Amino acid sequence: MANAKLFLKSGHPMTLFASFLYFDFSFAIWVLNGAMGPFITQSFHLTPAQTGLMIATPTMAGALMRFPLGVVSQYIGRKNAAIVEMSAIVIALMYGFFFVHTFHNVIAMGVLLGMAGASFGVALSLGSGWFPREYKGLAMGIAGAGNSGTAIAALFAPRLAMHFGWQHVYGFAACMMLLPLFVMTVFAKEPPDVEHQSLLQHLKCLGEADGWYFNLVYIITFGGFIGLATFLPTFYVSQFHMTKVQAGTYTVFATLTGSATRVLGGYFADKLGGITTLSVVFLVAIGGLFGLTTTPSLALTTAVFMLTFAALGAGNGATFQMVPLRWPLTTAVAGGMIGEIGALGGSILPLALSQSKQHTGSYATGFMAYAGLAVLILGMLLLVSRKWTRTWVGKGGRALVPTTPVTSRDVVVTGEGLLVS
Question: How far apart are CA 421 and CA 418, in angstroms?
């Protein structure tokens, strides 16, 4: 792997660590309702369709909040945006602790939990902002490994809910959120890669075809990751009739795998290229999703989940190795936009699986439909990447690193990204 000392010296490690904690705890809170899904379903006697809606609501809300937070961060700074967001999350969790008593309250709480999901673009841009282009993928992979928060939620939320009641978990989470808030306030520094542009210039990526290609890729990689992570506890309880705590434990096995491989995805994307890495992980994920249409045993199903999560996690890291290469001056905004649209895939999957279960008695149709969508998007990636490698990125999706020192007059920002003359 890249020389660790050179990597650490090239940036600001404490800001990267603060970004990781910020994303990790935010991610755990974002998926709280999914982790406690079996408890909430039992409390209100929900149908599979209602359970799917309850699990999908935080994901949808978080997706819609990502882009606005990314825009705000360009004006008040990414560190300040993170502090404001975490403070708002603590307040939202206190609402959950005191006032959530009906199914409608749970849906409202899901919208508030969406604030935590908005952290993505800001966390990755803040964490990688101090690092040079050749280390962007690794830095974003480390910050993005905060999606291990899914494992934290799956491990602790069911156990706390079992002993204290699921409403009290919101209160515990509010207290825990104070740790990353403290670290961000005290140790993080705003990166120097700030370019003051108009709102119209920031929003320009919304009208670019490349942005929508990235969105579709991310619907599968991140959408699949967050969708499966939030739905797994409900799946295990329904499919294998295990206890709620056991379901949380099995969920940890899968989600931790995906979190660890996000770093590897960023690393291999730096070395082999993001396009090459994405092509491989898509094939593995597609095979895993088709494999999940049958669940012959608990052990085999868990192994397939772990393989699928590994591929999706690596795909997340590879995707965001390429984002700062394509939008070097508006990475937070572009990342927020891609995260916003892409994360909607995380709400599609629980809804598809729950509807499949309610109408067919099996989850197979939902998995098959998502796998078919992944096949189509892989074909799209292979087509559009031919243009990418002729314009703003190197062979296979590697960063174009200049061989001679670059001055301000050598750099031209175009619609295709950062070009070195």
Answer: 10
pLDDT of residue 421: 30
Asked if residue 7 belongs to a domain, the reply is no
Within a domain: residue 1? Answer: no
What is the C-alpha separation between 233 and 252, in angstroms, rounded?
Answer: 10
Task: Give residue 60's region: left, alpha or beta (phi > 0; psi -120 to 50).
Answer: alpha
270: domain CATH number is: 1.20.1250.20
Q: Which domain holds residue 67?
A: 12-420
- Give the C-alpha distances (Å, rounded to integers) separating 156 from 20, 99, 229, 421: 19, 22, 14, 53
**Single-letter amino acid, residue 334:** A
Give yes or no for a contact between 388 and 397, defined as CB atoms under 8 angstroms apart: yes
pLDDT digits (tens, 9 = 90+) for 186-242: 999 999 876 555 566 656 767 789 999 999 999 999 999 999 999 999 999 999 999
Q: Is the pLDDT of residue 2 over 50?
A: no
Determine the residue type at 117.
G
The alpha carbon of 245 is separated from its chain's Cα centroid by a whole number of angstroms, namely 24
Selection from 267, 256, 240, 203 nearest residue 70 by Cα:
203
224 lies in some domain: yes
The torsion region of residue 353 among left (phi > 0), alpha (psi -120 to 50) and beta comes to: alpha
> Looking at the domain assignment, is residue 208 inside a domain?
yes
